[in-house]
Amino acid sequence: IGFINSGNNPVIFASSTLKQFITSGNLAKHVAHVSADLAKKKNLMVEELKKAGLEPNNPGGGYFVWLKAKGKTTGRSGKGMSLENDAFADYMRLCFAWLNEEEIVEGIEYLSA
User: Fold this and answer.
1) Is residue 21 within 8 Å of residue 27, measured between CB atoms?
2) pTM for the whole thing?
């Protein structure tokens, strides 16, 4: 309680750190790095899905590739992803953000087997 009464709120430190991160240009560098990494993974997933005979969308951003399910499924079903409850029931939403390149290829091999 003493640090609150004395005005040494931890938000001041966090705000100062965030301000420095932004004004130093490091936020922009980080966003550029993450964007390039995600684009590489997305491109790999889209290319591998096409090689497997599937028809994915090629998103311009985000973390997911959508495609119509043909046989095996994985990822999140499209059911309930629209105001029309079953509009995308036969689609899959695959996330590429958390996977490394080997895991992306392995998952697509599973779908095409």
Assistant:
1) yes
2) 0.78
